[in-house]
């Protein structure tokens, strides 16, 4: 997916006018002396602020609507709005992005991005001197990852991303990062996307994603990706874990999906993508060795979880236990192709499966039955699928209610080399009201 987006950006005209001079304050913070550039006090535009900021500095953005986009190519910069709901970077339905970081250690906090044609906030190691870049038209199968080392260390915190053309918050070819306490809606691909990394060391927690084509999407992001304590409700599909030959590092594997609310993803008034997966809680396409524990997976007209293949990549070795399934068309389905059968998927807590004989195989795999784990799991070529509604333009999705600000007085510590993951034992099965105070429209 990223290739087609970047190819379009590569031909977009990005005009950045830099200031000849501006006042720069050295402001005392809990971390000591730090350069702080105020917008519009010290720089009239976001582009001017990006030119002036030094490594380790801060761009502090006053309330207001900024009809531009911001590219950060200086390391360890913090971009922070003074008011999450009133500091607005607006793409106007014509600019491709809100904020893009192509340098290590960047933080984006306490602001709103809306109206971008591609994505609200992007972190990526795939770039050239002009910003986000794309490999050749030959495709990712010929792409050399060593040519574009991953971006290291990033943070998205208390960001609202709504009504952006494809993605709300996007981390691609990036590692050692956190997406937390943020909100995404009205995205025609996914509200939150993590893609193309190995040894990713990424934490996604405390977020709300609703009224998107997909609430959360992972494509080829593997090893130490933790998705915990989020609300993915009221999208066309709740979340997906995908292997994709359009990106490097197949297959997708080894995520931990723990303590999330994944409910009622049958939303007709979301952008019209994900038609084939409409009304699905969790889709696993070619994903392997992922763990799904203590999630509430409920209210899906099609299915709670679907296992399927991506070309010759099977869904295999996934472990599902300790979850609560309720009011789904079917709790678990396997729609893999006969040429790429699913194997060794264990589901300990489903009440219903399609096909019916899949139930015994999933249970046996959980019980350690080696023969059951090795055998091809029963599949169906057809699954009762409600008609996908037409959906709506990303520009017309109802905006969210005001979201809470970053706590006052938050400091600017440098991002560490690795993410301090939470104790996952503290995340139980959430109830239906989890994070509901942050859901809904104005």
UniProtKB/TrEMBL annotation:
Keywords noted in UniProt: Signal
A Pfam entry, by short name: NosD
Chain residue ranges for the region called Disordered: 386-409
Descriptive protein name: Periplasmic copper-binding protein NosD beta helix domain-containing protein
Location of the Periplasmic copper-binding protein NosD beta helix domain: 96-272
Signal sequence, renumbered to the chain: 1-22
Keyword hit for Signal: yes
Keyword Cytoplasm: no
UniProt-listed SMART domains: PbH1 (SM00710)
Highest taxon of source: Bacteria
Recorded coiled-coil stretches: none
């Amino acid at each position: 997916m990223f290739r087609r987006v970047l190819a379009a950006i590569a031909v977009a005209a990005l005009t950045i006018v830099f200031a000849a001079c501006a006042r720069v304050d050295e402001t005392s913070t809990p971390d000591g002396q730090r350069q702080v550039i105020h917008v519009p006090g010290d720089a009239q535009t976001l582009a001017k602020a990006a030119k002036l900021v030094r490594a380790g500095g801060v761009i502090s953005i006053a309330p207001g609507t900024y009809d531009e986009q911001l590219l950060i190519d200086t390391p360890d910069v913090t971009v922070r709005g003074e008011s999450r709901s009133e500091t607005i970077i607006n793409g106007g339905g014509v600019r491709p992005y809100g904020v893009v970081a192509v340098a290590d250690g960047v933080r984006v906090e306490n602001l709103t991005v809306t109206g971008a044609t591609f994505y609200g906030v992007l972190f990526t190691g795939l770039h050239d001197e002009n910003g986000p870049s794309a490999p050749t038209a030959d495709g990712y199968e010929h792409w050399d990852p060593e040519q574009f080392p991953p971006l290291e260390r990033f943070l998205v915190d208390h960001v609202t991303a709504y009504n952006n053309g494809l993605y709300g918050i996007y981390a691609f070819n990036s590692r050692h990062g956190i997406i937390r306490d943020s909100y995404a809606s009205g995205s025609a691909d996914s509200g939150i996307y993590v893609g193309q990394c190995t040894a990713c060391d990424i934490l996604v927690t405390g977020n709300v994603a609703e009224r998107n084509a997909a609430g959360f999407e992972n494509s080829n992001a593997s090893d130490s990706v933790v998705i915990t304590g989020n609300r993915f409700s009221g999208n066309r599909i709740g979340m997906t874990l995908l292997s994709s030959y359009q990106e490097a590092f197949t297959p997708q594997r080894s995520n931990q999906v723990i303590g999330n609310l994944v409910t009622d993803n049958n939303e007709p008034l979301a952008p019209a993508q994900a038609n084939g997966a409409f009304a699905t809680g969790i889709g696993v396409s070619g994903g392997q060795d992922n763990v799904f524990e203590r999630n509430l997976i409920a209210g899906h007209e099609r299915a709670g979880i679907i296992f399927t293949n991506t070309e010759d990549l099977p869904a295999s070795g996934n472990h599902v236990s300790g979850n609560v399934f309720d009011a789904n068309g079917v709790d678990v389905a396997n729609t893999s192709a006969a040429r790429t059968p699913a194997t060794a998927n264990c589901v300990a807590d489903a009440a219903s499966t399609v096909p019916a004989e899949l139930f015994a195989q999933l249970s046996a795999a959980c019980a350690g039955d080696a023969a059951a784990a090795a055998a091809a799991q029963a599949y169906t070529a057809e699954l009762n699928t409600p008609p996908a509604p037409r959906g709506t333009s990303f520009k017309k999705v109802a905006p969210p209610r005001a979201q809470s600000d970053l706590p006052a007085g938050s400091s600017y510590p440098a991002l560490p080399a690795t993410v301090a993951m939470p104790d996952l034992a503290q995340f139980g099965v959430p109830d239906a009201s989890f994070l509901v105070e942050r859901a809904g429209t104005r």
